[in-house]
Description:
A hairpin with a 2-residue loop joins strand 9 and strand 10 (191-196). Helix 3 (67-74) packs parallel to helix 5. It contains 7 helices and 13 strands. The strands form 3 sheets. A 6-stranded mixed beta sheet has the order 6-5-7-8-11-12. Strands 2-1-3-4 form a 4-stranded parallel beta sheet, with helices on both faces. The protein has 219 residues and is an alpha/beta fold. 32% of the residues lie in helices and 30% in strands. The chain has 2 domains: 1-113, Rossmann fold; 116-219, Rossmann fold, CATH 3.40.50.
Amino acid sequence: MAEFDRGLLDLTGRERPRVVILPTASYPDGEDVFRRWAALGADHFRSLGAEVEPVFVRQAADVADGACIQAIGEADLVYLSGGKPDHLIRVLTTSGLGPALLEAHARGAILAGCSAGAMVLAERQMEMRRRLLFWPLRWRSGLGLVPRVAVVPHYDTWPEPVTALIAFQAPRGAVVVGIDEGTAVVGRDVAWQVHGQARVTVWRGRRRERYRRGDVFRL
């Protein structure tokens, strides 16, 4: 995704953009995984010419000193890692971290998310319960940056009958956006464009739409 991420940096309009890596979602998988996400993100964006600062927020209590809020306030791009979406949204909504992200976006910073990081940016978020039989699905509120939308990452790794059932159980009026691996969407207002190597699948109720690289759709 280097070409794609270089494009995100170009959108900031800065010669050396400031990037914050937020690996919070990966913390439930252990300190080593948490540190690895931070290091991967930092190395990746530095190789693209950015000034990078990992922000090591594991739990809501880590936000108390205010340093991470300041870092987000100065960022041109904030990247939320993959991991556990329920843990991430809990930290964001029980600390000042969520409001800081919303304020950063309102002043023009780019917010990007991978997997769990992408899920929490939308208005609705599927709960990932720790058991194989997770029906019926439960849904909770995300940060709400993309109104009415719920994101299903790694879409092409699930059998589509399963993802169809997920879409059919979404809250009334919600739009489910399934993003394949190696693929991304970039949005501003209601227009979204597909980037990467595979597809984006949009479910509006029981109607399915497919989009590929370069396609633009509206949400």
